[in-house]
Amino acid sequence: MISKNFRIAGTLIGENSPTYFIADIAANHDGSLERAKNLIWLAKESGANAAKFQHFKAKEIVSDFGFANLLDSESHQSKWKKSVAETYEDASIPSEWTSELKKTCDAAGITFLSTPYDFDSVDQIDQYVSAYKIGSGDIDWLELISYVASKNKPIILATGASNLVEIERVVEILTRSSNEFAVLQCNTNYTAHPDNYSHINLKVIELFKEVWPGLVVGLSDHSRGLASVLGAISLGANIIERHFTDDVGREGPDHKFATTPSEWKKMVEEARLLECALGERQKEICANEKMSSIVQRRCVRTNFSLQVGSKLTRQDLKVLRPATPGAIRPNEIDQVIGRVLKVDLKAGEELRWSDFE
């Protein structure tokens, strides 16, 4: 069901809530449980709300034959030193790790999340996760999505390399279920090339909000730098997901386009400042600019010393700073011309309505 807010492990996500940051550690554990645990602590220290992993068995997610016969030299997998099947085998998380990862997240004070890529993985992680992530590549595997939905937990759906019709189909399934859910705009390209910025299409976030009013939305991002993240938040993103590593130079499928701890800290700091800066949809003089509204604005003042009985002309008047409280404003100057003074005024003195007969 569509809801403006929902909770993951007690944290409120959505409208009028701080942006929720998911550090996707994914395959960046590099086959080491201790490394995975260390990345969890680093993610927490860097300001992430959740540390996310990916649960799959290589034989349940990729066809070795299929990739060996895929005639495409432009895919990111074509740059891997090992076969796709071997790479996924190395990146898979042994089942006995899951409880250890959850315990480490609990100790660090960060939420444990994961993306399951097969039915057994859904069941395996269910006791450990408070929400599920559906990867972009499974957006048309409706039976898996329906199975995840049957667990009655919040769902975060990524939408890379898909179209609106495909997303609508999934949203319809999730709307009929009792699950609260979020939809993340995503461009599924893992090359970290600057040209990818022209394909991120942050305005899709606004489209999601128009098509499904009240929907919790976000960005699953594979770019470097802060532009896409800050832009997404400005357009209403409630969730930001990025891959996380301690070194983008390490060997592995997910390091190159990931965010490091120092970069993550900066991202969260800037996001919190942006959230503060976005403010309200209400234009008024703010508390911190009240004095500026006096010293930088003008009021109507005398051009010369004037005596009682003077009938004012435009030449008798000047519009000068500051706008002394109670003085006549420049937009009222036409109403002053022709009026007769009942007091003496010095040159440069402000005019008040009480100065006239």
Automatic annotation (TrEMBL):
Q: Which residues form the AFP-like domain?
A: 299-357
One Pfam family, short name: SAF
Instruction: Give the UniProt record's GO annotations in the biological process aspect.
Output: carbohydrate biosynthetic process
Read off the InterPro entries from this record.
AFP_Neu5c_C_sf, Aldolase_TIM, PseI-like, PseI/NeuA/B-like_N, SAF, SAF_AFP_Neu5Ac, SAF_PseI/NeuA/NeuB
CDD domains from the xrefs? SAF_NeuB_like
UniProt cross-references to Gene3D superfamilies, sorted A to Z: Aldolase class I, Antifreeze-like/N-acetylneuraminic acid synthase C-terminal domain
Q: Which GO terms describe its molecular function?
A: N-acylneuraminate-9-phosphate synthase activity
Q: Which PROSITE patterns match?
A: AFP_LIKE
- Name the record gives this protein: Unannotated protein
Q: Which organism is it from?
A: freshwater metagenome
